[in-house]
Amino acid sequence: MTTPIRILVVDDEFSVRDSLQAWFRDSGYETEVAASGKEALAKMGRQRFDIFLLDIKMAGMDGLELQETIKEHQENPIIIFMTAYASVDTAVRALKLGAFDYVTKPIDPEELERLVRNAAERRLLQKENLSLKVQIEELTPFKDIIGESQPIQDVVELIKNVAPTDTTVLIRGESGTGKELVARAIHAASPRRFMPFVTVNCGALPEGLLESELFGHEQGAFTGAQFRHKGKFELADGGTLFLDEIGDVSLKTQTDLLRVLQETEITRLGGTKPIKVDFRLIAATNGDIEARVAEKSFREDVYYRLNVFPIVLPSLKARSGDIPMLAGYFLQKYARKMNRPIRGISASAMALLSQHSWLGNVRELENSIERAVIFCKGDELLPEHLPLHRSAASEGSSGLPLSEVEKIHIQRVLAETGGNISKSARVLGIDRATLYNKIKRYGLLVRE
Ligand SMILES: Nc1ncnc2c1ncn2[C@@H]1O[C@H](COP(=O)(O)OP(=O)(O)OP(=O)(O)O)[C@@H](O)[C@H]1O
Ligand SMILES: [Mg+2]
After folding, report:
1. Residue 252, in any domain of the structure
2. In this structure, is residue 389 part of a structural domain?
3. Distance from the alpha carbon of residue 360 to the mean position of ligand 1, in angstroms
4. Domain at 326, CATH number
5. CA-CA distance, 298 to 317, in Å (whole number)?
6. Residue of 177, 181, 312 best suited for mutating to test ligand 1, as the one with most atoms within 8 Å of CB
7. CA of 152, closest atom in ligand 1
8. What is the pLDDT of residues 76-105, one digit of tens each?
9. Structural domain contains residue 447
10. Residue 1 resides in a domain
């Protein structure tokens, strides 16, 4: 046998956990215990289990809910329920939902061990296939990050290194470069991956609302606080908190955040009882946070707390080699979504995409492809489906100076010919030298 079978016992009763752990350890199984569904998910983030022994009635997340969550995260888990006689109906329901079997309480350990042995045999049969799947599963957090260019591969490498730790990460990058995507990938590759990923857009809320969003509040804490409300710090407990646009938070909120990071506890607005919180912090900004530190609108100590492991995302222009791959990926995504039989992107449309400046980075590219898919009625995306330059060149160009119209027109023709100078010159009815001069004068980009 290569690897031993690993069992996770989840029961809110200490005596059950304790005795089953001792029993199965003596029988040669690696055995871990958890007192709640939440604790079980936290442990699952750190190691894989083959067999789950679940109590059905537990406070918080009950056994059935836990079964559903385990199934979302793991292929073919083997789950055995332990239930009081009174809830056998529930156990039968669990079987229908795919549980392996159940035992009734009080537990006869020998009967349970027989079941576990059967389950273990089934598990070993599955294992060969499974190890392959595990490898694939381990790659998946990064499969959504498209790109083969060096800058993006460097980013993926940083993510792989930092994900297994609890280190605070600061993600920098222009708008639309994928900061949130990266934050989610770090969470998904971390031991906290089965626990919540909670985002707060700090730039979108005025100070007071942001504070109540983060800390939560007790009933009656302020006018309009009709009910007690859990804050994002609490909701992220056990998981990852993503503070987007951190550069925008006020000095007061920075001070409060610092206190939470130092004391790892919070108090709801209007509350008195401190509540322990345990989250991994990822923050993002597209601004010049150092300038804000210099002008004293961002606390230096908070900056150092956040800037432990910076990841700087390249602009799309800095990795323009990835444009064809990204465009193809988004084309597939939206063609499937809108059920369009589009096979690919024409060479001239691709040339246009490669030359565009993409100030809005990957988001702008994604939006352009989505719109193009809407316009495309055939089986190939063409330049006319793309919104780029469309406004100036084809509509309402009467307000533009002649030189601007000429520049736009040349750029379009170049795009349509895939940057072929001779062909473009022919289309434009001028000779190649003239075209070269104009390209130089207008600073147009031509692919070599
Ligand atoms: N490398 C990538 N591969 C695939 N999709 C990407 C990549 N980078 C970004 N995207 C996609 O581009 C869109 C914008 O990314 P995201 O929201 O993460 O950017 P952001 O940096 O958070 O932007 P903002 O600063 O405006 O909030 C998303 O739909 C995301 O999935
Ligand atoms: Mg974002």
Report:
1. yes
2. yes
3. 10
4. 1.10.8.60
5. 29
6. 181
7. 1
8. 889 999 988 767 788 888 888 889 998 988
9. no
10. no
12 is written with which tokens?
A: 């809110």
What are phi and psi for residue 242, nearest 5 degrees? -110, 110
User: Quick one: which ligand is closest to 243's CA?
Assistant: 2
Q: 8: Cβ–Cβ under 8 A, 6 or more apart, which residues?
A: 31, 32, 33, 34, 40, 43, 44, 49, 51, 52, 53
Of all residues in the chain, the percent with pLDDT exceeding 90 is: 59
Query: How far is residue 313's CA from residue 50's CA, in Å, rounded to a whole number?
Result: 38
Model confidence, pTM: 0.74
Considering the domain architecture, whether residues 241 and 268 belong to the same structural domain is answered as yes
Longest distance between any two alpha carbons in the chain, whole Å? 93
- Nearest ligand to the C-alpha of residue 366? 1
pLDDT at 415 over 80: no
Indicate if 358 and 307 belong to the same structural domain: no
pLDDT of 88 reads 79
Of 93, 116, 137, which marks where a domain is finished? 137
CATH number at residue 119: 3.40.50.2300
Tell how far the Cα of 295 is from the centroid of ligand 2, in angstroms: 25
Q: Are 41 and 123 part of one and the same domain?
A: yes
Tell whether the model's pLDDT for residue 3 goes beyond 80. Answer: no
Q: Which residue, 298, 274, 269, 134, is CA-closest to 209?
A: 269
pLDDT digits (tens, 9 = 90+) for 295-313: 999 999 999 999 999 999 9
- CA-proximal residue: ligand 1, atom 16 (nearest): 178
**366 ligand 1 Cβ < 6 A:** yes
| Ligand 1, atom nearest to 362 Cα | 12
How far does residue 144's CA lie from ligand 2's centre (Å)?
15
Q: Residue 132: how many CA atoms within 13 Å on its side-chain side?
A: 3
pLDDT of residue 379: 92
Are residues 66 and 28 part of one domain?
A: yes
Tell me if 286 CB under 6 Å of ligand 1: yes
Regarding whether 130 and 158 lie in a shared domain, the answer is no
Lowest mean pLDDT among 214-223, 231-240, 336-345: 214-223
Say yes or no: 324 and 307 in one domain: no
State how far the Cα of 440 lies from the Cα of 438, in Å rounded to an integer.
5
Per-residue confidence (pLDDT) for residue 329, from 0 to 100: 96
Of the three residues 292, 312, 332, the one that is the final residue of a domain is: 312
- The preferred substitution site among 180, 329, 368 for testing ligand 1, maximizing ligand atoms within 8 Å of CB, is 180
Between the CA of 316 and the centroid of ligand 1 the distance, in Å, is: 10
| Full domain range(s) for residue 133 | 6-137
How many domains does the structure of the chain reveal?
3
Quick check: CB of 419 below 6 Å from ligand 1? no
Q: 14 and 84: one domain?
A: yes
Query: Domain check: are 196 and 300 in the same one?
Result: yes
What mean pLDDT is predicted for residues 93-120? 88
Q: Are strands 169-172 and 240-244 parallel, antiparallel or unpaired?
A: unpaired
Ligand nearest to the CA of 312: 1
Q: Is 258 in the pocket of ligand 1 (CB under 6 A)?
A: no
**Using a 6 Å cutoff on CB, does residue 362 contact ligand 1?**
yes
